[in-house]
Write a structure and sequence with these properties.
InterPro entries (chains A, B): Nucleoside_phosphorylase_CS, Nucleoside_phosphorylase_d, Nucleoside_phosphorylase_sf, Uridine_phosphorylase_euk
Mean pLDDT of chain A: 92
CATH class of the largest domain in chain A: Alpha Beta
Pathway (chains A, B): Pyrimidine metabolism; UMP biosynthesis via salvage pathway; uracil from uridine (phosphorylase route): step 1/1
Distance between the termini of chain A: 21 Å
Number of strands of chain A: 14
Family (chains A, B): Belongs to the PNP/UDP phosphorylase family.
Keywords (chains A, B): Glycosyltransferase, Transferase
CATH superfamily of the largest domain in chain A: Nucleoside phosphorylase domain
Shape of chain A: globular
Number of domains of chain A: 2
Oligomer: homodimer
Protein name (chains A, B): Uridine phosphorylase
Largest interface: A-B, 70 and 70 residues
Chain lengths: 319, 319
C-alpha cells in the first residue's frame, strides 16, 4: 500500500502498479516546482551543474555518521564487503568543493557525514532528501551509524534504536517554524530495526541490543555530564536522571537521532539508527579508553550495517 | 571591578590587585576539582597528555567560525597582518588527531572551527573554556566570525551583533538540563561591539552595520526558507515573518550566536559576533552568487577582526 500523507503537497515519483507503488521519496514543498535550478549549497552540488540522476540514480542505501573520516572508512569497508573494491582504489569526496560535509559512493551505497547535533544533520538531510528526489531514487534505506553514551551497557555494545526520545523520554521532536512550535513524530521503521538486531545476532562478534535512544541538544549539561565547563547539579542528581531514562527504556544518548527519524519519516525513507556505546554513563563521563579500543568500537555499527546491506543485496539478486 | 556571579562554584584564576582583578576565565563546575585529569575529547587534547599552559597560556584572542578551511585561512591572514608569518610557514592543525574540530595558533591568536549549529559549537565551547582555564589564560576576547543570511541588507554587508535573539526575537536561550528548561541570557559585550563597528568604519572597504542577530536551530524551515525538502507555508508567510524580525531589529540570521553569547557570558569571556550577510533573504533563499564573490564576502569578517586585533595589540605595546 502506498503511504498516505494528509497534506501531500507534491506527488511522489513512484509509479503505481496494480494498486501497489514503489517506495518513493517525497519532498513536501510545492515551491520546488517553480525553481529553475536547485543549488544544494552545503554539498556544493546542484541540478543545473550536475547530472544528479546519472550520479545517484542507483543509490539504494545511504549511511550517515558524524565524522567525515569514519564515513570514508565505511566506504572502503563496504566496497570490500560487496566485492566492489579495486586494488589501490581511492574514493573521491563528491563534496570536495566544500568542507561542510563529505560524501562517498560505491555501487548502490552512499556514505555522507553530518557533523554533530540536530541542526547540522538537519541541513544535510534537507539537501540529501532533495538530492535523492532529483536523482529519482526509489526504495532507499537510510541508516545512521554513530557513537553514543550507553546507560547500563558494557562499553562497545551496539544499540539499534527502537524509538528516538527527547529529554523527557517522549518520541517527539519540537521544531520551530515561523517562530511557532511544530511537533513531529520520531517513529522509526520497526521491521528494519528487528532485521538489524538479527544481523548483530548473526555476526555474534559483539553485543547488540535494541532500546530507546535519547537525543539531546548538548553533550555536557544536556546529557547530565559532570565534566563540562559548567555544572550546577550533583552526582546524585545525574544518577537519578539517568535511572529515570533507563526506566523509560533509554539505553543510549546521542545528538542526531530525533530529527533524523522525523525527516526520514516525512520523506518516506526507511530509516534506522545504529550507534555503539563508547562508555557506560552510569560509571563515568570521560572517554578514557585508548584510541585503539575506541576505534574498534566505532567500527562495529559499520560491520553490522555492512552485513545487512550484503544480505539485502544477495536476497535481491536471488529473487 | 571583578564580575560577580550569584552561584560562584569555582573561583576565577585572576589575582586581586588594589581591589581590581585581571579578567579571568570562570569554569562553574565544582566536580572538575576532583578529576585527576581532564580529557578534552573533541579536541584530542588533555591535561595529562599536553602542557596546556605552555601551549596556550599566551592566548589573548580566540576567533571561531563554522568552517575548518576558513579558520585555517584566518590564521594565515592574521599571521601576515601581525608580522608573524614566515616564508612558506605552515600552520599545523593542533587537533590533527580528530576530525571534529580544527585549531590553529599564531602568537596570541587562537583560531578554532565549530561546525554548524548550537549543539556543535556548544561542545567546542565547553572544551575551549576548560582549555583556556587549564592554560591559565586571562583577558581573553572571543569573536565568532561567520556567515549569515541578511534581512534588508546588501549582500556582503558585515553585521556586528548587538543582541542575539531567538525565533521569537527575545535575547534568551533555553537549554534543557536534567530534562528541565533553563533560560540563559545571550547578552554580548556592548563596548566591544561598538569598537568592532568602528573598525568597519576605519577600514571603509565594505558596509558594516550593528543589529540584532536571530539564531535558529534549522537552516531551512527554521529560517522561513522556501527551498528545503519540506515547506508548509507561503511566500507571503515567509515575508511577514522576516518583516516582523526586521521590525524587532534583526538584521541577519545564523545558527550559533545564542549559545556562544550565553556560554561566553557565563565564563566571563569578552565576546562578539561578526557575520557577513551572504544574501538578502527578502529577495531569495538560494546562494546563487559565484564562488569568487561568496569567497570575497567570507573574508570580510576576518579583515574586520584582523584590524581590531592589530589595533588592540599596538595599543597594548604603547601603554
Amino acid at each position: 500500500m502506498c503511504p498516505s500523507q494528509e497534506k501531500k503537497l507534491k506527488m511522489p515519483l513512484g509509479e503505481e502498479k496494480n494498486g501497489a507503488c514503489d517506495r518513493s521519496i517525497y519532498v513536501n514543498n510545492p515551491h520546488l516546482e517553480s525553481m529553475t535550478e536547485d543549488i544544494l549549497y552545503h554539498f556544493n552540488l546542484g541540478t543545473s551543474t550536475h547530472d544528479l540522476p546519472a550520479m545517484f540514480g542507483d543509490v539504494k542505501f545511504v549511511c550517515v555518521g558524524g565524522s567525515p573520516w569514519r564515513m570514508k572508512s565505511f566506504t572502503e569497508y563496504i566496497a570490500k564487503e560487496l566485492g566492489l573494491s579495486e586494488p589501490n582504489a581511492d574514493y573521491p569526496n563528491i563534496c570536495a568543493g566544500t568542507d561542510r560535509y563529505a560524501m562517498y559512493k560505491v555501487g548502490p551505497v552512499l556514505s555522507v557525514s553530518h557533523g554533530m547535533g540536530i541542526p547540522s544533520i538537519s541541513i544535510m538531510l534537507h539537501e540529501l532528501i532533495k538530492l535523492l528526489y532529483h536523482a529519482r531514487c526509489t526504495d532507499v534505506t537510510v541508516v545512521r551509524i554513530g557513537t553514543s553514551g550507553g546507560i547500563g551497557l558494557k562499553p562497545g555494545t551496539v544499540v539499534v534504536t527502537k524509538q528516538s526520545v527527547d529529554s523527557a523520554f517522549q518520541p517527539r521532536l519540537e521544531q520551530i517554524i515561523l517562530g511557532k512550535p511544530v511537533v513531529r513524530s520520531t517513529e522509526l521503521d520497526g521491521e528494519l530495526a528487528e532485521e538489524l538486531l538479527q544481523c548483530g545476532k548473526d555476526l555474534a562478534e559483539f553485543e547488540t541490543v535494541i532500546g530507546n535512544t535519547m537525543c539531546t541538544l548538548d553533550f555536557y549539561e544536556g546529557q547530565a555530564r559532570l565534566d563540562g565547563a559548567f555544572c550546577s547539579y550533583s552526582e546524585e542528581d545525574k544518577q537519578n536522571y539517568l535511572a529515570e531514562a533507563y526506566a523509560a527504556g533509554v539505553r543510549n544518548i546521542e545528538m542526531e537521532s530525533s530529527v533524523f527519524a522525523a525527516m526520514c519519516k516525512l520523506s518516506n525513507l526507511r530509516a534506522a539508527v545504529v550507534c555503539v556505546a563508547l562508555l557506560d554513563r552510569l560509571k563515568g563521563d570521560q572517554l578514557t579508553s585508548s584510541h585503539d579500543v575506541l576505534n574498534n568500537y566505532q567500527q562495529r555499527p559499520q560491520v553490522l550495517v555492512g552485513h545487512y546491506i550484503k544480505k539485502k543485496l544477495n536476497a535481491s539478486k536471488k529473487s
